[in-house]
Amino acid sequence: MKGIVHEIKDDLALVKIHRKEACGECRACFSGMTKSEMDIEAKNLCDAEVGDWVELELQDNAFFNAVVIMYGLPFIGFIAGVVLGYFGLAKVLPMIHPALCSVVLGLVGIAIALLWIHSQNPRWESGKYRPLATKIVEEDEEDAVCNGNYLA
Q1: Is 125 exposed, middle or buried (0-12, 13-18, 19+ CB in 10 A)?
Q2: DSSP label at residue 9
Q3: Could you read off the pLDDT of 18-59 as tens digits, one per residue?
Q4: In whole angstroms, what separates CA 35 from the centre of its chain?
Q5: Taking the CA of residue 51 as centre, how many other CA atoms within 13 Å lie in the half-sphere pointing to its CB?
Q6: How far is CA 101 from each of CA 75, 112, 141, rounded to the nearest angstrom?
Q7: Which long-range contacts (CB under 8 A, 24 or more apart) does 118-122 make?
Q8: For the chain: N or C, fewer Cβ within 10 A?
Q9: What is the spatial distance between Cα 74 and Cα 95, in angstroms, rounded to a whole number?
Q10: ∠ CA 149-150-152 to the nearest 5 degrees?
Q11: What's 47's DSSP letter?
């Protein structure tokens, strides 16, 4: 994926990229839902400057690991909450329907997982889940048309 650097902060480059069609279906980032462009902070490994076009990469398995963290952990929290609610809390509180206990504890499990993920965010932002600006590249014709820089 390629983008244009529009700001440099310490060893990070703020890169503006164009969303691809696959991003339109993802909805993982709220900023990407309405705009055709997104800003991404990337580690500036190629010493890019403002106005340079750079190629962005993720480290090996970083995308898969991020997906497991963002979707797998809340799912595990939900399942654990459902099981504990149905077989544990429903036995302790027999006047409440077991399905209601399982749904409530399932939602609590999701909330706990999301709070834990949020608490770990500073550690992950500085680590291997950050995109890398690996090399400076030339703007190709497709990018020029997208940016309105193409003069026919």
Answers
A1: exposed
A2: E
A3: 765 555 445 455 444 555 778 888 888 888 888 889 988 877
A4: 16
A5: 0
A6: 17, 16, 58
A7: none
A8: C
A9: 28
A10: 145
A11: -
